[in-house]
What does this fold into?
Amino acid sequence: MSEFGSTINLSLIADQLERVGYIVLRAPLLERLSAQLLLRCQDDDPERFHAARVGRGQAERRIDAIRGDVICWLDGQDCVDQAYLAWMEELRVGLNAALFLGLFDYECHYAIYGSGAGYARHLDVLAGTRNRVLSTVYYLNEAWQAADGGELLLFAPTGDAVIATVKPQFGTMIIFLSESFPHQVLAAHQSRRSIAGWFRVREIG
It folds into this structure.
């Protein structure tokens, strides 16, 4: 067991990503760290959390019908955020060694969806770039019930088939290929908390 979470089963993660393109992990982090992350993921501080936007540059704007969460980027100076980022750094190094992905950094933010909010079907690759390679979502919702909604739907690379439905239960993580899988966040019926992140490669040109 590492300082930051359960021992990373790199062989399992790498094998699943190579064969099927995604993996769902149950409780990959220590419960103590997860509880601390949940305390950090509260939207009562307007200086930290702000409404998420879609688009880039001058076209960036808030469209609640597409995306309804508020976000706060993790702070590398905060000890709790540092612990999560350190665990993800272990994963980055391990996946580079196993799959030669060329991942050079990781960015992530807390995300809170209020009751009734969701995120329409989309890809995590930003328009005009291909630097996001792997997407991760870590859920921070205690005692989440099926009736609470908020599931993440993972679609097949082509067509409309749903290949995975992930309940946003506390301590669950999904990792998937950013360029391959469209996905959608269904509306939740109470506040839904998570950490969304992306491993990136360097852009060429």
Summary: The radius of gyration is 16 Å. The longest strand covers residues 105-113. The longest helix spans residues 79-99. The helical segments are 10-19, 31-40, 79-99.
